[in-house]
Amino acid sequence: MGAERTAPGGSALHSAWLRKRSWLRAGLLVAAIATTGVAHSKFDTQSRVRTDPLRVPSPEYARLWSLGFDAAVADYYWLRALGVVGGATGPVEEHGELLAGLIDVVTEIDPWVDHPYRFAAVWLIRDREMVERGNRLLERGISYHPLDWRNRYHLAFNYFYYLDEQQHAANVLEGAVGLKGAPDYLAPLVARLRSQRGGLQVAAAFLVQMIESTDDEYKKAEYLKALDEIQVEERARFLDAAREEYRRRNGRDIERVTDLLAGADPVLKQLPRAQLHLDGFEWILDPQTGQIVSSYYRIRYRLHETESDRVRKQRWREQGDGVEGEGA
User: Fold this and answer.
1) Could you give the CA distance from residue 98 to residue 124 in angstroms, rounded to a whole number?
2) Does this model's pTM top 0.85?
């Protein structure tokens, strides 16, 4: 099935044109595949993933060789993008350069597509440059679908969650408030972003909607994992407060987290779960930082930090190198 397309509001002429061409789509796609095969033999481009022989043309080349069959060629590259995600054996974001190139072709030669804009954005997260490329695609989607709240939501999520630009996220999200289908909680979310308050709560609210809206099970699992981390971090902060109370009462720090349960008048009656879904994990003191951490994660959750960032930091910690070289 080809990429979903929607006409701009009020464009009856464009809608009629879309209906008229729909019966040609199957035949044109066959022709486009043949055309792109010829075109590929002529493209000289370095835009490829090392493990994938697919070469991605510039949108200008793709349009030139489409011979007017723009929608069919867009469908061809859209299917290739789906294949990259479906066939990835490692983290999909490592194929970001290829995905960005494919979706750039799709949305440049047929900008009325809908889902590809958001599809690209959820995977282009390897580093800041990739997130910004995803943002540019979402901005293009907003320009062609100004009444669709979802592209604005994804763009605001990127600004808040990956780039730590809360005010920019608030400005983008405010444009989605009141649009057809937009959740009622967007306005309070905008207010929280503008107040710079409730970082974990805002992140949780964003993630809940991302979980509900994504149709990719792997990405949904990633968002669920991030939501779990936030909930564990909230419990760790609760223990931080209990630790302060222990110091106040006893004039000394805890030696282990279970000290919070000790004594005739313990600070806590019981400890919260250190992992929401699995047994066998406990709260411990990090030997390097002294922070209270879950033995499952062994590191405190931080906003605006990607999974690859955390994996890299954890590897450094395990190697005994610390995180001082992070900026290198």
Assistant:
1) 10
2) no
Q: How far apart are CA 8 and CA 105, in angstroms?
A: 20
Separation of alpha carbons 60 and 201, rounded Å: 44
Helix (H, G, I), strand (E, B) or coil at 84: helix
Does the domain formed by 12-217 have CATH 3.40.50.720? no
- DSSP for 214-251, written as a single string: ---HHHHHHHHHHHHHHHHHHHHHHHHHHHHHHHHHHS
Calculate the alpha carbon distances from 197 to 49, 81, 181, 186, 200 in Å. 40, 38, 26, 15, 9
Q: Supply the pLDDT for residue 179.
A: 94
What secondary structure does DSSP assign to 118-134, as a single string? HHHHHH--SSHHHHHHH
Q: Within the chain, which residue ranges are assigned CATH 1.25.40.10?
A: 12-217
Listed in order, strand segments (DSSP E) in 169-328 are: 283-285, 292-294
pLDDT category of residue 67 using cuts at 50, 70 and 90: low
